[in-house]
């Protein structure tokens, strides 16, 4: 069996590495630099070992390509391209559309098309299938299914094998073939009654996180007003063995999922005339955290930041990954600069970002910890400035929420 995986990023490359053990994989990506790097056996994604890629390349079971003709003879296509928000913070399906064009123009025999990209309910039925048919140069009837991706980059306890996977096809045959495909490398498959259920479940999983993070972010402001520690209070609540799940406050949410996916659900809901008040409010609370943090820092530092050297520790959106998509650091830095601070940042994993590079972890007036990678010790952070504000709850003995 030969499989094309469209998009070789966090999701697509992770799937390619798993599938390579059993199948011949063509990793299609329109970024030629990534393609060349992958064909040289170098992985750009945490959690995908270069050695694994090299093994599949040597065995003739992995080829990266930017050429559509290389996917002409596959049996199955997986779509794993970005589904971000556009500049108006609306769902942006242009990458999905481009992937559909690649499939339509190049795959001329019937295959199973599985979408793993996250999008609103109805995307497979009302968008992907018609788009592929529109771009197809010959009348070909593909099968269509959805299996939303749940990978959590950087996580070691759950992976493609032991994370249960939802799936559903537009037809019974598509559902069955999807089950056969994933059962090669996934232990637990959960069939649902329609693609829309799978699509909505994926969005609700991330909305659950987004809303609970907003709740704990608001709670951090309440505990501060009460003069008690949010972390001690959360730990106390977390001793209840049922009905409680601990989330921790932060300077905001980042990454491709939590700040983005709930808006896909809200947009669809509002299109149907149903309000999505929790989602919209949670977005506002999470976005306001950057300003809240800076207000706290200003309050503790004589009422202004003008001319002060502020060092941001960790610009990746979460620990131990180099991913800066939608990172809260962007807003925090913007607020610092708007208040006259001279801002630098330190991040061992990111190194270069927004035309700036990682600076030494020392010599600042004020350090604000946004993300603490394991490679950075709390001791080094504490020595970097006379005043440290920690938003992570991982640096003891400094100012925190
Ligand atoms: N990263 C995660 O943790 C995660 C988890 C679950 C679901 N998802 C979802 O999976 C999808 C992919 O996310 P990702 O994190 O892998 O994105 P990514 O940005 O890491 O990778 C996407 C890749 O697709 C390529 N690409 C873009 N347009 C293309 C096209 N038209 N043809 C071929 N390649 C193209 C890009 O060059 C990039 O390499 C999104 O819908 C996302 O919401 C992501």
Task: Offer a few descriptive terms.
five-stranded parallel sheet; 39% helix; eight-stranded mixed sheet; binds nicotinamide-adenine-dinucleotide; 401 residues; 15 strands; single chain
Structure commentary:
With 401 residues, the chain is of the alpha/beta class. It is 39% helix and 14% strand. The protein contains twelve helices and 15 strands. The chain has helices spanning 10-19, 32-39, 50-58, 94-106, 123-135, 172-182, 195-226, 230-237, 261-271, 277-300, 329-338, 378-383, and strands at 2-6, 24-28, 62-65, 76-79, 112-115, 143-146, 165-169, 189-191, 309-313, 342-346, 352-353, 356-357, 366-369, 387-390, 399-400. It has an eight-stranded mixed sheet, sandwiched between helices. A five-stranded parallel sheet has the order 10-9-13-14-15, covered by helices on one side. A hairpin with a 2-residue loop joins strand 11 (352-353) and strand 12 (356-357). The radius of gyration is 23 Å and the shape is globular. The model has no long low-confidence stretch (mean pLDDT 96).
């Amino acid at each position: 069996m030969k499989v094309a995986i469209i998009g070789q990023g966090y999701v697509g490359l992770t799937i390619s590495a798993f599938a390579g053990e059993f199948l011949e994989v063509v990793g299609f990506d329109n970024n030629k630099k990534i393609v060349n790097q992958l064909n040289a056996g170098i992985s750009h994604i945490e959690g995908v070992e270069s050695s694994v890629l090299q093994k599949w390349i040597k065995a003739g079971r992995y080829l990266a390509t930017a050429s559509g003709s290389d996917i002409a003879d596959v049996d199955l296509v997986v779509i794993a391209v970005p589904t971000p928000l556009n500049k108006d913070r609306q769902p942006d399906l242009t990458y999905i559309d481009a992937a559909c064009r690649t499939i339509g123009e190049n795959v001329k025999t019937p295959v199973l098309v599985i979408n793993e990209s996250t999008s609103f309910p109805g995307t497979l039925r009302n968008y992907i299938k018609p788009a592929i048919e529109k771009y197809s140069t010959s009348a070909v009837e593909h099968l269509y299914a959805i299996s939303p991706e749940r990978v959590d980059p950087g996580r070691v306890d759950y992976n493609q094998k032991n994370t249960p996977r939802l799936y559903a096809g537009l037809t019974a045959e598509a559902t069955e073939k999807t089950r056969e495909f994933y059962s090669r490398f996934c232990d637990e498959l959960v069939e649902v009654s329609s693609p829309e259920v799978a699509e909505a479940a994926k969005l609700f999983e991330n909305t659950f996180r987004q809303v609970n993070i907003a709740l704990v972010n608001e709670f951090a402001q309440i505990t501060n007003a009460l003069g008690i520690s949010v972390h001690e209070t959360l730990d106390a609540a977390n001793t209840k063995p049922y009905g409680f799940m601990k989330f921790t406050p932060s300077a905001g949410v980042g990454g491709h999922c939590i700040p983005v996916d709930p808006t896909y659900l809200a947009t669809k809901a509002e299109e149907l005339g149903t309000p999505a008040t929790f989602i919209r409010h949670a977005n506002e609370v999470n976005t306001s955290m950057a300003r809240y943090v800076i207000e706290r820092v200003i309050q503790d530092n004589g009422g202004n930041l003008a001319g002060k050297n502020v060092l941001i520790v960790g610009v990746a959106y979460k620990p131990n990954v180099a991913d800066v998509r939608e990172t809260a650091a962007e807003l925090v830095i913007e607020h610092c600069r708007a208040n006259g601070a001279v801002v630098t940042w330190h991040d061992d994993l990111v190194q270069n970002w927004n035309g700036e590079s990682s600076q030494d972890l020392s010599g600042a007036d004020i350090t604000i910890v946004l993300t603490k990678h394991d490679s950075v010790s709390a001791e080094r952070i504490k020595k970097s400035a006379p005043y440290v504000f920690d938003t992570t709850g991982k640096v003891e003995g400094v100012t925190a929420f």
